[in-house]
Structure formats: C-alpha cells, structure tokens
Amino acid sequence: MTGIATRKGFSHWIERTLINITVIESFYRGVSLSREYVDRWITEHIWNRVFLDYACGNGSYAINAAKAGAILSLGLDLSPVSIENAKREALHQGVADNTVFIVADAEKTLLPDNSIDIMICSGMLHHLDLSYAFPEMRRILKPGGKILAVEALNYNPVIRLYRFLTPQMRTHWEKNHILSLEDVKFAKRFFNVGEIKFWHIASILSPYIMTALPVLNVIDGLLTRIPFVRLMAWTFTFELIKHENDQKNF
Question: What is the pTM of this model?
C-alpha cells in the first residue's frame, strides 16, 4: 500500500512539475520583443570585440556573439554542468575556436583588468550582492565598454503577488532582491547609465491568449512610454557604460 501511495505521490509531483514547466514556457514565448532587442544589441556592438556572457548558463549569448563577429567570446558560470553544455554546443555550432567557457564566480571572476569590450548580464544580478558584482564588472570592463543588463522589475503588485505565492520557484535571496530603479541608481556609482527600456505589461497575458500576442505587443509599445505605467513592466533592460577616462588598475 505504501508503495502504491508513493508512486501516486510521485506521479502527482511529476504532473505538477510538467504543468509548471508548460506555464513558464508559455510566458517566455510571450517575451519575443525583449529577446529580439537583446539579440540586436549584441549584433550591433560585437563586431571585432571581446565579449563576455556573464553567468552564461548554457552559453547561448556567447555562441551567438561568436557567430556575429566577436574576435573572442567568453562565457562564465558557477555551474560546471552548464559550462560543459556550452562547450559542446559551441563545438556543434562551429565556433569552438573563438569561444572560451570557464567556471567562475560572478562576484570574483579572476579575469584580467580592463579586458572586456561588451558584456551581457541576463537575469543574474538579482542573484548577486551588487556591492560586489558592480565593482567586479567595472574592473574587467575596458574604458568605454558597455554592459546590457536584463532583469525582472519589482514594482508590479500582481507580479509581486505571484512571486509571493510561488516561493518554490526561487530562492529566498532571489525573491528579496528583484531589481528596482534604486539599483540602477546604485549602479551610477560605478558606471554611466545608458538607455533604459521597459518590457512586457500586457504581453504577460499571452499564455492565455497567445493568438493576441501581436496586439498585446502593440499595447505594450504604448504603455511602456508612459512614465509611471511603464514601471508595471515584468522586465527591463539597462545599459552600463564604463567611463572613458576610467583607466584605474584595480
């Protein structure tokens, strides 16, 4: 009897997990506009530059940057499994010769000072202590170098309620460190801040009405131009630029 109950419990757990994965995948299918923006940003900035995918996961941005003309494309991540996956995928994509993937701590990368031209940091800053991460990012970035950060935004009360009701989907630290504009203000201690863009207000409804996604994207384009309303966005992107005269050896 116990074995049957255990198997039923496991089956229910699998079912719930698959439902959660399906819902999450549906949400991420609705974020095509911000993903396309990030891809364009990388392509526009990367030619003949040294690129870093900061906390690279399986290395998709680093691989795309290598294919788009980076002279060298680096990826770092704390997970050895992710790094091995990234290496295999780079080999499969034919860019193993100009990609390097390393296991490293994002708050202490051990990369040389002033060594990176362009950096992408997607969905990682809220996992880190910014008082360590921002100085480290500044240290390894060349003067005039640019970072594009992609992060969840912590203003929308409905999204905040969803995060509160789904604690199993994120760590306690992560839940309490979703970014706000106060964190961008803090970043100004280390960088110039470039363009800030807000993404996905109406389009987060797309899992329920996927056929309406084009219309929802148009609505988002209007809503994200309104100063207060745009703070209700699910995610935002912001550029960090190292001062041209910042030649400090750390």
Answer: 0.86
